[in-house]
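User: Could you check the structure of this?
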Amino acid sequence: MKKYTLLLYIILLSTSTVNSQELYRIYFTDKGNQILEFENELYNNILLGLDENAIQRRILNLNSDNILSEKDIPIYEKYLDSLTNLGLVIKSKLKWYNYIVSEMYPNILESVLEIEFIDTIQQVKEHYIAGRNTSDFINCGTFDYDISFNHLNMLNIPELHRYGFTGKGARIGFLDSGFDWLNHKSTKNTNVVKSYDFIFRDSVVFDQMEDIDGQDNHGSVVLATVSALDNNKFIGIAPNAEFYLAKTEDLRSETYYELDLFAEALIWMENNGVDIINASLGYTQLDTLPLDYSNLDGNYTIASIAINDASALGMICVISNGNNGDKPGSLGAPADADSSVAVGALNSDGETLVGFSSNGPNSSGVMKPNLVAQGANIFSINPNSEDQYGSTAGTSLSSPLIAGSFALLRSIYSETSTYELKQNMYESADNFDNPDNRFGFGLPNVFQAVYNLGVAISPDNQLENGDFKRLVFYIFPENQVLEALLEVEYSEFNSKEYPLVRKGTDNQYFVDIPKDEFEDFMAKGRVVVKSYDSYYYYPSSINKFDIFLDGDFVQCGVNKIDIIPQDVFDPDNEFEVYPTVITNYGKFNIALKLNDYYNIDISVSNVQGKIITNESLNYGPGVLNKEFTLNIINSGAYFISVHYGGKQFHKKVIFIN
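Assistant: Sure, the predicted structure tokens are below.
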């Protein structure tokens, strides 16, 4: 028998509320006649609605090409049409759980319940019925962190930033009370790909007339810890990431409907290919029916359930553990979710827990928090100004630091499973050997997590170098690199491979590619590194990055002085010897301008053709400058000969001893 799920005190409505519309969850019996089978029409139509990043993330983490389930089937459209024809206003649709949130008058409840495809109706004053089915920053120099140094250095983030790792390619979603990123100078260039206000159903996530004053302050402050870039003052942890913003928290009230909006936003983000989410939100004291500790079992509220389901599809869901005090079981939902990465708060010393930082475990005994980061005396933007900053506190600030840290890992290892990213982050933390419900695994060392995950390849740096374009990458750990090369696609019919040359210091590799090969203002490139156990790629095994014919493009955080090509003799012709009259103790130089990678034979012979010395080496493309010393030969004429790629060059020189 169908059940109208309302508590007794909810039924005792005054006559005035009968005449006003209220919010209800309407659960459907099924999804109509929609049948999902691998690669049938419905399957392919659903795939078309998923972002490519979501598809690739699911394939990676589900380890299957069949990545859709019944949850992905949309709510049956004819059911929705029938309800709207009755005058119901649909506020929210959650296809994973086959229900909608709708406004309707209480006096039509019984009529709606009689509809054969309606299973259950629940007023949004209770928890969800458990058990039912993201622009590049370039040429901004090295970072001077100033007030942002302490909380980033605590995580060893500057070590990654100096190699140009700033989150490029990672998609991170924020669920909060709103965001006004365009107001402050440090966040105005945040790469917001999509935003949506789930409260008022539009794309405007900053304050609107219906909001209370300052609705967007909290989200703006939280977002800035990751996305800000104001060099010499305040640097976010992953400013070059792609951002997806969802306004789900309504400060006018604290209701269960906000948990529905949270879950809906999470589905929206998963379908849009978001890799990591941050939610500096927590729920225990709600306006109607508070959550008690027994409800915080990791799989009770719809928000916690959605986190577990999104995590199963490869998302990393980072949640603030709460500010309810350093005492057992003081966490909130959805930090209690079994699969969440719940985050506690440290003092600025990086060692002691802040007094307000909530503890676990959840009521099922699962350890929470999972990690900690600085959450007291931490700086962020002043959201009510255009250029000011201030000190603040809360697990709301420690949580995005961990979310941003995961964004850095995901940007470097785009084809590594979520499980591996989480495990390496946990293993890098300072309490990993003795985890507890105050610190979890502790404070992570994000650089160490990167180092342990495998070969890291930095984003590309591009520099003018005469007739060549120099590309510079940082690749480490060095002892894992067996071979590194750059694939370049100049056009559909012209592709080349060039080995990367290790500069010899600080994990730097480079290659000079000839501008003569460009058929347009831009080519495409991909770095491939062979290691002992695997191949690693930048940007990924299926994507390429843009190589521009002209201009310098240096990743933010990288010191350009460290990567500028050294001044070398650039010959007018393919082959030059200098000087041609050699008096300096037999020292001379050759210069070769090479448009590809060659095996090069160099020899010195006398006029009778006798070879005095010879050498073979591999080089190219680029300009090779090499010095030779021949101090035990007689004065006279000699020939310097070079052979490579089917070409031969000879230069006559005079030795005077």
